[in-house]
Each structure stands twice: as structure tokens, then as C-alpha cells.
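Structure in, sequence out. Go:
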């Protein structure tokens, strides 16, 4: 859950993949989303060090990379839990049960949107459209898509997630969740460009 500002370097195979990708674009900035995916895959998230590395590779400012990484909600950041629960909150899902799904998650994990469990295992977010308006409420868990997430279906999903962690709802009773820290990180990168 900690962010790092240590200088990151890609393992040689990933660096070769990044170099090959960057060579395909006359403007390296065009490869930023794909470079962020490589950084995320190699380090498990995009932390401050990963932002700085992507900026260096794509020859853009750290602010540009931060803008990209914060605009797209699909990137894993240091403040997300191991299991990232994203519940659609746009109109169709809201009408189809978002509030009930969030209450169900709260009863099981003790979380409200924007919080992470004290052990860093689960985090909960309300997000914009997940493109399944006809089967609300839509939800993503670790980027796996789920629909009609309420009642027994949501209970089963939460039970499976808890079981993978050898946890029960009792582990989260009376806990004090932590607010996800989505503060803007301080990234210092020498600008030689």
C-alpha cells in the first residue's frame, strides 16, 4: 500500500519489450498507455517510481503521466487493495441496485466507497460506466467483469474472495477502514528533454 519514489528500472526482458514498442511510434508519447501497462505488470501497480519511469521512457513530464494514470481508472495504484472492488454508479446501475450492492459489501467487509480494509486486502470504489447497462449493477473485481451483482450472486462472489484470503466477514467486523489516499504524489524526474 506504500508508494515509492525509488528509481525503478525494468527487468531486461520488459525493457526490450518497451524499447520495441517505443520504436514503433515516431512520438514516444503515443506509447504511454502501453508503457504504463508494462510498468504495472512488472511492479504490480503504478507507484511514484513507476510514474517517473514511464515519463522517462516516453519522454514526457511526470505531470503528463500522472494525468494519464489518474484519468483511466483501470490502473492499479498503491492505495488500491489486493482485491479492488469497483461498482458502477452511473444512472442505469444506480437504478438497478448500486446502493443495495454497496450496502451488501459494507455489511460483509465493513467498507464504504473510497476505503480500504485495515489489512489492505479489499478496497471499494464507485466508478463510472462499466458498459453493461442492461444487467445492473455491473461490478469489476480485479478487473474481472461481473453483472447483476446483488443478493445471492454478490454474496457468492464476496464469499469466494474471502475464502481465497482465508478470511471471514468476522475479520472485518468493527474494523476502522482506511481512506484510500489518492493524493497527488510528488514525482521528481530530471528533465533533460
Amino acid at each position: 500500500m506504500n508508494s515509492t519514489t525509488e528509481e525503478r528500472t525494468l527487468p531486461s526482458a520488459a525493457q526490450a519489450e518497451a524499447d520495441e514498442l517505443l520504436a514503433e511510434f515516431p512520438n514516444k508519447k503515443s506509447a504511454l498507455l502501453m508503457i504504463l501497462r508494462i510498468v504495472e505488470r512488472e511492479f504490480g501497480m503504478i507507484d511514484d517510481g513507476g510514474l517517473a519511469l514511464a515519463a522517462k521512457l516516453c519522454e514526457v513530464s511526470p505531470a503528463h503521466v500522472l494525468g494519464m494514470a489518474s484519468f483511466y481508472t483501470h490502473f492499479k495504484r498503491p492505495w488500491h487493495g489486493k482485491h479492488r472492488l469497483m461498482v458502477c454508479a452511473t444512472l442505469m446501475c444506480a437504478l438497478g441496485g448500486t446502493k443495495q450492492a454497496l450496502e451488501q459489501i459494507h455489511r460483509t467487509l465493513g467498507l464504504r466507497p473510497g476505503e480500504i480494509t485495515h489489512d489492505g486486502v479489499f478496497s471499494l470504489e464507485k466508478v463510472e460506466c462499466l458498459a453493461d447497462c442492461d444487467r445492473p449493477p455491473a461490478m469489476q473485481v480485479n478487473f474481472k467483469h461481473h453483472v447483476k451483482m446483488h443478493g445471492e450472486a454478490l454474496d457468492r462472489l464476496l464469499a469466494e474472495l474471502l475464502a481465497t484470503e482465508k478470511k471471514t466477514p468476522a475479520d472485518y467486523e468493527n474494523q476502522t477502514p482506511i481512506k484510500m489516499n489518492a493524493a497527488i504524489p510528488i514525482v521528481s524526474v530530471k528533465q533533460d528533454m
